[in-house]
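Feature request, filed as a ticket because there's no other form

It would be nice if the structure record came with a short human-readable summary line next to the tokens. Right now we just get the raw output. Example of a typical job, pasted below so the devs can see what we mean:
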Amino acid sequence: MATFLFYRLKVALYLAVLLLMLLSAACKPQSENPVASRDNATDYFSTLKILNAKQSQIYDYHLPDKDENRALIQLNEERLRLACLNAASSGDALRAVRDNAGKLTREQMLQVYNSLDAKTKKSQLGKSMKAYVEKKAVLVGDSLPHFDGVGPDGKSFEWSVTDGKRVLLIYEGWGWIKRSTHLWFKDLLSATDRDSLAVVAYVYAGSMAEFHKRVKAFQLEPYLVVSDLQGKEGPLNKKMGIHGIPTYYYTDRQGIVRRIVAGFEPDRFTMSTGLSPAWGESLGPFDEE
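Raw output as currently delivered:
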């Protein structure tokens, strides 16, 4: 009888220990961010797969344009955050950060770069990241650089004409921009007074003759047009950190870059910058500045 009681007590003790272990696991605080680990690249790919599935769902839901665009922008912001967290452990994540440099502040870029090991920093990709950190690219939060150039009249371009205004610098891509997009920008310009917004159009050109030809061909006369006359091989695209054309830089009245957008689709551009010709003098999220 005593042996039977001892056996039951032993079993009860085991069950109690097992229950405590289960309760401990259940009560253990769970990470709110499943991709926060920087030493496991698997987190990056598995979570990226989930985000891609979410994008497919967004398309399947047939949302109104603005709701769909907003959802996609949030999704892309989550992809970039995920890439930043895993940059130190995944080359693909690091490339994603590098390719989206214009969406990050310099402090964020520096944080990512400092997370890399010595070997990665010495790699070509690491050196590319270092170039951004060392101000070889314009990032959100930087002052828009006032590079040297000339206007169609051959005189030096005076950046003082943009003082105290919000500036939209359109960096090339004129051959890629559709006619409807040209009209969109001209509608934007006509809907706002010149004291509110300055639209600066940068043009590739290797000579004044080529400059005049491109200004006329793309009907850029309504804009403040500028070229450094160094053609496509000039150093400006490297200094600006251009990865594709057209690229748009939108600043506040103090000349601080608030948005950098590559490519152009009116709805998504409007959501990213807050600029819309339909809003007249209301220029989006920077009116208070």
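Something like this underneath would help us a lot:
Residues 174 and 218 are 7 Å apart (CA to CA).
Residues 41-133 form one domain.
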